[in-house]
Amino acid sequence: MTGAVHQASLAVRRMGIETQQEYVVYMHRDCHVCRAEGFEAQARVQLHLNARSIIATLNVVDPPLLELGVAGLSNSAWRALKPLHGDRITVSHAPTLDSMSQVRAKIYGHRLDAPALDSIIHDVAAGRYPGTHIAAFLSACAGGRMDLQETIDLTRAMVAAGDRLDWGHAPIADKHCVGGLPGNRTTPIVVSIIAAAGLTIPKTSSRAITSPAGTADVMETMTPVSLGIEQMRRVVQREGGCLVWGGALALSPADDMLIRVERPLDLDSDAQLVASVLSKKIAAGATHSVIDVPVGPTAKVRSVEDYQRLKELLEQVAQACGLNLQVVRTVGTQPVGRGIGPSLEALDVLAVLQGAAHAPVDLGVRAVALAGQLLEFCGHSGPGTGEAIAQRLLASGAAWAKFQAICEAQGGLREPTLSRLREPVLAQRDGLVHAIDSRRLARVAKLAGAPRAPAAGIKLHVRLGDRVEAGMPLFTLHAEAPGELAYALEYLAAHPVIDVGEPR
């Protein structure tokens, strides 16, 4: 028996290949384990090391990349198995994935009940679904193919698949934006105001999915955000709030797996959006959440009808899951602030918190309005008084002091870095700014390198209604690599993002 185990075992080597959350194992084409077990490229296999076990996708490689008798592990697989020097792994066929039959049923138009969704999400969270399977599930549920009860059951399944925090008191405040509006980085300001008011607001945020920056990306230019649950608890107990990356926590872990596949597919269905947002609120222990939904012609939510449908779905699912929710419609006709991209948005946030003369007024006004609504919603202030209280906390410097304290508790506050390369984009004619395409601006910022290069992005110089003259800069591109700067400029040549014309 010992010999048989030895024959199926392999030495391990870290390949240094980043596959994000998907586990990948690399094996020699003539590996005795591959031949004995009949493994082929892209097979799903189970890797065992001591008490740890993961499901991985097999990639077959030719010499000299790997020698016989050695299994190469992707970075994510290495982190999960934690091999020590001299350790050997055993490899076997992955167990049958019974929940895929439910995904196939959904593809053919059948409903998914609560047990089916529990089974699918449990397997996703356990890492048993490769990207292809997750893509199939997301596609089967997109385009309005999930009804209300399915969305409720999906939300509950995502909460049940991970940890759930309990802060021992109420209210626990939360604020979230559904996204789609570049530069709308109100969350760090709102968290600072709410915590300065004495409420508890343990804010977990995502990295960018389809945008040039997520709140976690922006905060990471100023302070560590990859905190564990116990670190997060200490920060919240000390300062009343935090601003951390949710992906470093085991709160709704299946959502992070789904987001990884949503990003390249650019899928963001209402049901998945609602389940993603609300599962993380519930898992983080929130009792009262204000959701910002910008509405505009080039925002994620483009019409009042789309807003109303999303609002009703959010409210119905939240009520079924026991979360107090207030959905707020905000104007989404143009970007907020001046910066688009992690560092540039962080500089806007700092300017507002510090009360700087050059701070973008619209970002501060939005943040104060949302903080005021959250103060009232949590019962901390009377009807109609929350905004004035929020404004006082911001203007007095209390919110700035709280932001600094939160960052120090998370590991220190640092200044965001600026880009090496900058290229102004000039107006081609005199006139008024009639329209700003938020979607195209976001794409340009991503082509320039954001959010992977934190200093990359766009700094806006104009707003709707501004009068400009030919040769004036409309915005400045920021990049870290010449190739990315050229790529963004090439896109702009064929896709104008700011409409300048005669007065209407």
From TrEMBL:
InterPro entries: Glycosyl_Trfase_fam3, Glycosyl_Trfase_fam3_N_dom, Glycosyl_Trfase_fam3_N_dom_sf, Nuc_phospho_transferase, PYNP-like_C_sf, PYNP_C, Pyrmidine_PPase_CS, Thym_Pase_Put. It catalyses: thymidine + phosphate = 2-deoxy-alpha-D-ribose 1-phosphate + thymine. Keywords: Glycosyltransferase, Transferase. GO terms for molecular function: thymidine phosphorylase activity. Gene3D superfamilies: 1.20.970.50, Nucleoside phosphorylase/phosphoribosyltransferase catalytic domain, Pyrimidine nucleoside phosphorylase-like, C-terminal domain. SMART domains: PYNP_C. Its EC number is 2.4.2.4. SUPFAM superfamilies: Nucleoside phosphorylase/phosphoribosyltransferase catalytic domain, Nucleoside phosphorylase/phosphoribosyltransferase N-terminal domain, Pyrimidine nucleoside phosphorylase C-terminal domain. Residues 432-499 form the Pyrimidine nucleoside phosphorylase C-terminal domain. Pfam families: Glycos_trans_3N, Glycos_transf_3, PYNP_C. PANTHER family: THYMIDINE PHOSPHORYLASE (PTHR10515). Belongs to the thymidine/pyrimidine-nucleoside phosphorylase family. Type 2 subfamily. This is Putative thymidine phosphorylase. It comes from Cupriavidus pinatubonensis.
